[in-house]
Amino acid sequence: MSILPKDLNWNHLRAFLTTAEAGSLSAAACQLGQTQPTLSRQVAALETELDMLLFERIGKQLELTQAGLDLLEHLRPMAAAAEQVALTASGQSQSIAGRVKITASDVFSAHRLPDVVHALRHKAPDLQIEIIAANDIRDLMRREADIAIRHVQPEQPDLIARKLNDLPAHFYASKDYLAQHGTPLTLADMSQHDLISFGSAERMIEALTPLGMTVTERNFPCGSESGLVGWELAKRGLGIIPMSTILGDKTPEMVRVLPDADPFMIPIWLVTHRELHSSRSIRLVFDTLAEFLSEN
């Protein structure tokens, strides 16, 4: 599909786009303030207009067909452009104000979010951005934060979640540590080294075992709930630590351990509550985060 027909009904397109991103007709209907039968008719009308099947009904679930995926790729930039035109035309782009709270891990908050905040300051100078650097899962439904960046998919049905990408990570150690203790050549060799834990050693063992590592609590002489503290411990030569390649590779005193090994991937989920569709401020921050973190 290269060109959309000129006479398509935008309401039908919006119904499809919202359903595709929400994952179900009921969730999409809630977002758009419509009844589920009305939304279903709009999606069906679009399929008729295009003469193609956009969703497959598998039990109670909706799965996008390849045609649906292709259409979604076209519609997302159109919807973003339409939103920007509406903001500019109405003058509301200048009225975006108030405080929006973003929560992410302390490492992510310190090393990834400042660039996003810098971009937001130019887009909406009256907007106040508060970053909550926390490694626990903040409760969006209680408004402890407006938007969360998480590494696990949320299960609450009232939240909107979009997976942006997977963040590659490797093991790192300081040059001093490797000079003193030697360099592991295989995952099996890691059992002979000191590792630094994020949180409890038990959680780290659970996370590392699927990678093929055989480690025990004796491999974790120190650690911290704080990723920033753990990274500083590693920089001081106290052990080997897993870290995103974005941070690890640009830290001069740190060396990637097992450099030829495949990275392990950390999923990045962008999550908010349904006020996303009624608050221009939250929508702007959400879309800016999605754009930046998808490309970086």
TrEMBL record:
It comes from the Bacteria. It comes from Parasedimentitalea huanghaiensis. GO terms for biological process: DNA-templated transcription. Pfam families: HTH_1 (PF00126), LysR_substrate (PF03466). Residues 8-65 form the HTH lysR-type domain. The lineage of its organism: Bacteria, Pseudomonadati, Pseudomonadota, Alphaproteobacteria, Rhodobacterales. Gene3D superfamilies: 3.40.190.290, Winged helix-like DNA-binding domain superfamily/Winged helix DNA-binding domain. SUPFAM superfamilies: Periplasmic binding protein-like II (SSF53850), Winged helix' DNA-binding domain (SSF46785). Keywords: DNA-binding, Transcription, Transcription regulation. InterPro entries: LysR-type_TF_proteobact-type, LysR_HTH_N, LysR_subst-bd, WH-like_DNA-bd_sf, WH_DNA-bd_sf. GO terms for molecular function: DNA-binding transcription factor activity; sequence-specific DNA binding. Belongs to the LysR transcriptional regulatory family. This is LysR family transcriptional regulator.
